[in-house]
Task: structure prediction
Amino acid sequence: MSSYKLTYFDIDGGRAEPVRIAFHAAGIEFEDERLTFPEFGKMRSSTRFNSLPVLEVDGVVVTQTNAMCRYVGRMADLYPDDAREALYCDEALEAAEDLSHRIVTTFGLEGEALKAAREKLTDGWLTIFIKGFDELLKRGGGKYFADKRLTMADLKVSGSIRWLQSGTLDHVPTDLVQRLAPALAEHAQRIAEEPIVVAYYASRA
Ligand SMILES: N[C@@H](CCC(=O)N[C@@H](CS)C(=O)NCC(=O)O)C(=O)O
Result:
């Protein structure tokens, strides 16, 4: 039996969260190493690309969240077998990564500079990505992004949407998604209520 260790920040969210949920859904035990930000600061330069998450599979280190999403997603039956549906799933996974990178460019700013950057982000990239995800959801049939069933794409994109709605991103209106794409807001809520997601958080309680 293989051993798995997933290292990420001590938050219930972010890049590693879909991977944690998928491990749990697959019934695969894994070491869930959770670091504080200062702890990460100390070991940052020892990670391959100076970032988290890092997954160890039988002691072999792997990086890149979407690679992990596909790998663990297959084991959890949360990744399409069909090549076309996998393409759709991947498109949503990669777009969610791009969205994170756009948001991260505003980290570290303060005061008026932060306000200006977040307002520009809201009217620019956030609007573009929200509308884009809405389009992907419509293409998938309105309920899921791919394969007419729950996949890693739903777990990942709904996490991003909940982040936008959370109020933790100062100057990003929490009702932005609801205003621009109500179906996407409804999707995020529905995915949070999916049995495998509920079961994962129950296991954390
Ligand atoms: N392409 C990488 C990006 C990883 C990444 O940027 N992770 C963030 C945390 S979610 C990080 O470690 N940032 C620390 C830093 O840039 O110093 C992936 O998909 O895993």
User: Anything to note?
Assistant: The first strand starts at residue 4 and ends at 9. The pocket of glutathione is lined by residues 14-15, 44, 50-53, 63-66, 97 (CB under 6 Å). Residues 111-139 form the longest helix (29 residues).
